[in-house]
Amino acid sequence: MSETGGDIAPVYNSAVVGAESILLVDDTVILRDRLALALQQRGFTVSTAGNFDEAVEVFRRNPTDLAVLDLRMPGRSGLDLLRKLLMIKPDTRVIILSGFGSIPASIDAIRAGAVNFLCKPADADDILSAFVRGDEPSVPKGAVSFPAPSLARNEWEHIHRVLADCGNNISEAARRLGIHRRSLQRKLRKRAPEDPAIPNVPDDDDDIEE
């Protein structure tokens, strides 16, 4: 966060968040190291890893108070890692980061035990403020049903995942998707379709009418 209109946005640190150590797991080394430095400057002892296996090894040696996990990594996903870390240290507070945020992904993360879900890009203050808000997650814990994303939304997210995996190389992405390069370019010019609205979901104690 930065200064805006002469006002300085609040800076969160280890004392404010109530934690001393944090694990960062992301396969993008530059972004991971930059975030690690920012968190060290805020008083945290920071551990880092680039994938599931490395993270589990690091975490077993030095379990941390907090963890920030990338949803999509080579090998097993951030959700798999979230579950594993909570088996090792159940009181670790975890946030999932994703470059392709969606309602279903955030629901899966909260259900698996994350305290919050953030879309990239997210800086140190974004992440720490999400930990502060974590006791009041935006996805109801008692929720039992949510609308599935539209087919158009699923297609849009899949195309952008493949494109990111190809380093934004449109020709290679088109080859992997099995479509013509021009067709892919047309699809990329479209805006992301909206997810269906989430209806009011009754709590577990409420009666559900047939």
UniProtKB/TrEMBL annotation:
Gene3D superfamilies: 3.40.50.2300, Homeodomain-like
Domain Response regulatory: 21-135
Keyword Cell division attributed: no
Region Disordered: start-end pairs: 187-210
A GO molecular-function annotation: sequence-specific DNA binding
Pfam families per the UniProt record, alphabetical: HTH_8 (PF02954), Response_reg (PF00072)
InterPro entries xref list: Bact_response_regulator (IPR050595), CheY-like_superfamily (IPR011006), Homeodomain-like_sf (IPR009057), HTH_Fis (IPR002197), Sig_transdc_resp-reg_receiver (IPR001789)
Residues the record lists as 4-aspartylphosphate modifications: D70
UniProt KW keywords: Phosphoprotein, Two-component regulatory system
GO biological process terms held by the UniProt record: phosphorelay signal transduction system
PANTHER family xrefs: PROTEIN PILG, STRESS RESPONSE REGULATOR PROTEIN 1
Protein name: Photosynthetic apparatus regulatory protein RegA
Originating organism: Stieleria varia
Name of encoding gene: regA
